[in-house]
Design goal:
There is one protein chain. By secondary structure, the chain is an alpha/beta fold. The chain contains 33 helices and 27 strands.
């Protein structure tokens, strides 16, 4: 199977990835943040304006001349791509490529588009239209909109989204309208205020996940209702992004989130693959073809230095159309026209017209020659170029003779499939004092994408949101003076993963919270951060300790005195530590030995999730590896998440030295602990210790290790397991930029029906959900996951506290994915007859 790497998760990247995956390609989609779809209208604009309003967009595309991208893409590719997209999203997008339709905006203007969500299509006349706004929604000037559109009248109703009273965001309303009871209350409020025959215009907030909202309300009012586009964050844009992402996952696209493409390897005129920066190290992803869909200047697909020089940072492709000293910056803005020039197959070309690499393609916002803002042409360029590139990869045309292309290897000497050297400059973005995360806030363009993804802000007004509490508030902070709402940030890191500008939002929030609480860390926070001590105390009296932690009166006393919620999930102590089991275990003879690995069990794997550690070790030995388990302490993650940076820094540095005792890869079944060593220590705390860097570069999550093994050698055959499993990728795993290796491995097991949750967070976030004041927030964040788990035989998740939270919220079986692998290999619970064949 041919492997294609797509870099960028905007409209062009997603369309190309979906098309290629549906054609049978193995597709890896690498992205460091969300694309621009959530900032857009949730429509597909092909061509809206030339010298005047365009009624037939495809006719304008056919008339485009070089250097406009449409002249190279061609009208046929644009037609095919738009029709393909409409077919794929038939329940969401309506329209046709030969006709523009009109949508209304929050300034009372009409904008043309080709494909639109049916709820956005404006009526032909506004004579009998009433514009309805919400008093709590500040970005919807109802009177202005009604006046500019020529509507008959306007209404402003007092109807807040749940949990908000004075101000609600578009996202708050969208989540509320997904609830049928909320829709019924809204209909009951508005119905008496309407006049017969009126058409209703409302803000574009009618549901995020539930597509029947518009139909339900139209039936309630017995009249037409339409949505009016608002400033970002765009609810229709989120709907489109969610639909395309779901379609890509259904097609089998492998998402590698939180990873930036930083280099490549090539041999002559062919790209061999791309290098990506993941948590703590570089890694190499081989590819038969690469599609670069990183966008233009606004998304850092093109960068400009202080001298005005514009460059493409990954492949160093030549950029055309760059402004010169005599450019008229007050006329048609020259920066909007710069970009990459390509041939008709979307391959970047040099000045002499020859392609640079035969299997490298550039699509979307990277392409130069168009003023997308004035033309309303960006979406058409994105999908048309993506279609052209994907079509050529599926059925490549005849390859011409390239201009001379020497062997290119970035970071000379790193030719291995996986590059295990630490990222040298990781601390330049993560210093605790005066640099790193705080410096990254200047890259914030206030796009609000982070706001749309935050699971905490979606369920409570107590947290002001990642943009406000992070880069926006940080500019005004001095010493310990911070906004108190930042304490309600769960540090899940979803905001950082979503940010297209690489702002370290979660790190900013964590550092601000630590400064705020530095003078007084509650006793509770000091206690719950001592995970190793808790394990040592509980293990000898495991039956008594476990019963005590399930006793309601005892838990009520603990809640009253310490502030640990009486219903919060707690760990279950094992009667025997993993280390004790390991020491008394009979020696295992390893046949066909493949090498040695160091096993890092973590505190939970030592005291509470002992069976997970056992299964991980037995799987490693079954595959032919000699396992060593050096003495090891705590990684310090719980200390870090509770603001005790000095103790956490000491702990992770000491641990790194212990794990580096052997010159071997380090493997762990604790997703949270691997995240601490590989990511949190440097990015959040700014730990600058070569031992931590080296350990982070060598460290592999157990499922990541199995995926690499499968690529290199092929895993042994699995026995069937007839179960329906819901897989949830935890936040700590996402932050490491490895994609979802557990999901890929579980899909190899015959009979196992695996569904990915696709949800941002379970709500637990380490120790966040234990705290009395945050327990209900954590529960609300996890509610969609708990609901999704119903009907599955079990839930698989890579981190301990997430498993405890899901188990508490669902009552179902929740295990680490390695237990399923262990079972599928036919291994007994603790001992097996080793046969490496």
């Amino acid at each position: 199977m041919r492997q294609v790497v797509v870099v960028g998760a905007g409209l062009a990247g997603l369309v190309a990835a979906i098309k290629l995956a549906q054609e049978g390609m193995s597709v890896h989609l690498v992205h460091s943040g969300l694309g621009g779809i959530p900032l857009g209208a949730g429509c597909v604009d092909v061509y809206g304006y030339a010298s005047e309003l365009v009624e037939v967009p495809l006719r304008q595309v056919a008339n485009a001349a070089i250097p406009h991208p449409y002249a190279t893409i061609g009208a046929a590719n644009v037609r095919s791509s738009v029709e393909y997209l409409q077919t794929q999203l038939a329940g969401l997008l309506v329209g046709e490529v030969d006709h523009n339709q009109m949508t209304a905006t929050a300034v009372g203007a009409l904008r043309p588009t080709c494909l639109a969500q049916s709820s956005l299509i404006a009526p032909n006349t506004f004579d009998d239209v009433v514009i309805v706004g919400f008093r709590q929604l500040k970005d919807f000037p109802t009177a202005l909109i009604a006046d500019n559109l020529g509507a008959s009248r306007h209404l402003v109703v007092d109807f807040p989204a749940p949990g908000t009273q004075t101000e609600s965001s578009a996202l708050h309303y969208a989540n509320a309208f997904d609830d049928e009871s909320y829709r019924l209350r809204f209909a009951g409020l508005l119905r008496p205020l309407l006049e017969p025959g009126e058409v209703i215009g409302v803000p574009a907030v009618l549901g995020l996940r539930e597509r029947k909202v518009l139909t339900d309300l139209a039936n309630q009012f017995r009249t037409q209702i339409f949505e009016i586009l608002m400033p970002p964050p765009s609810v229709p844009g989120l709907r489109l992004n969610n639909a395309l992402t779901a379609l890509a996952k259904l097609a089998g696209v492998r998402f590698i989130s939180g990873a930036s493409c930083c280099g490549f390897q090539a041999d002559g005129s062919k790209v061999l693959g791309v290098e990506i920066a993941v948590a703590g190290r570089y890694t190499f992803v081989p590819a038969d073809a690469v599609i670069l869909a990183t966008g233009g200047l606004e998304s850092q697909g093109l960068i400009v230095d202080s001298y005005g020089k514009i460059s493409e940072p990954v492949f160093n492709l030549p950029v055309s159309g760059a402004p010169t000293a005599d450019s008229d910056f007050w006329a048609n803005q020259p920066f909007l026209h710069c970009g990459i020039q390509v041939d008709e197959r979307m391959r970047p070309v040099k000045d002499d017209g020859g392609y640079i690499y035969s299997n490298l393609y550039a699509v979307g916002g990277l392409l130069g020659g168009a003023n997308r803002i004035l033309e309303f042409s960006g979406d058409g360029i994105a999908v048309g170029s993506a279609w052209a590139a994907a079509t050529d990869i599926v059925a490549p045309g005849e390859t011409e003779v390239s201009s001379s292309s020497p062997l290119v290897i970035l970071r000379e000497g790193n030719r291995s499939r996986r590059i295990d050297t630490p990222i040298k400059d990781r601390h330049s973005l993560s210093r605790r004092e005066g640099g790193g995360a705080r410096e990254s806030l200047d890259q914030c363009i206030k796009c609000t994408i982070c706001e749309t993804q935050c699971p905490v802000a979606a369920v409570t007004p107590l947290f002001a949101g990642p943009k406000y509490a992070g880069p926006q508030a940080e500019r005004f902070r001095h010493q310990g003076s911070v906004d108190v709402s930042v304490d309600y940030c769960s540090s899940c890191g979803i905001c950082t993963l979503a940010c297209p500008q690489s702002v370290q939002v979660a790190a900013l929030n964590a550092q601000a919270r630590t400064r705020m609480k530095a003078q007084r860390i509650p006793l509770r926070d000091k206690l719950i951060s001592q995970t190793s001590l808790m394990g040592k105390l509980m293990t000898p009296i495991a039956p008594v300790a476990n019963r005590a932690l399930t006793n309601k009166p005892i838990r009520t006393v603990i809640e009253t005195t310490l502030g640990i919620h009486a219903d919060a999930p707690m760990p279950v102590a094992s009667g025997e530590t993993f280390s004790k089991w390991w020491k008394k275990r009979p020696a295992v003879q390893i046949n066909n030995q493949r090498g040695e690995v160091v096993f890092f069990h973590g505190c939970a794997g030592e005291y509470f999730e002992v069976e997970t550690s056992k299964c991980a070790v037995e799987v490693l030995e079954f595959l032919g590896f000699k396992v060593s388990v050096p003495q090891q302490g705590c990684c310090g993650l719980a200390l870090q998440s509770n603001g005790q940076y000095d103790q956490a820094s000491q702990a992770v540095s000491k641990l790194a030295g212990q794990l580096l005792h052997e010159e071997a890869l380090i493997v762990s079944a604790s997703g949270s602990c691997t995240g601490m060593v590989k990511h949190e220590a440097a990015v959040v705390m700014g730990v600058n210790d070569p031992k931590v860097e080296k350990a982070g570069a060598r460290l592999r999550d157990i499922m990541e290790f199995l995926q690499e093994f499968d690529t290199d050698f092929g895993l042994p055959p699995f026995h069937p397991i007839n179960k329906e499993v819901l897989y949830h990728a935890p936040c700590q795993l996402k932050a490491q930029g490895m994609g979802t290796p557990a999901l890929q491995i579980l899909k190899l097991i015959p009979g196992l029906e695996v569904t990915e949750s696709g949800l941002a967070c379970c709500g637990m976030a380490g120790t966040y959900g234990l705290k009395k004041e945050k327990f209900e927030i954590a529960k609300a964040v996890g509610a969609p996951l708990f609901k999704m788990a119903a009907g599955h035989d079990m839930v698989a998740c890579d981190t301990e506290t997430c498993r405890w939270q899901i188990r508490k919220g669902t009552g179902t079986s929740v295990e680490h994915p390695i237990l399923l692998v262990h079972e599928a290999f036919g291994l007994a619970s603790n001992r097996f007859a080793l046969d490496n064949g």
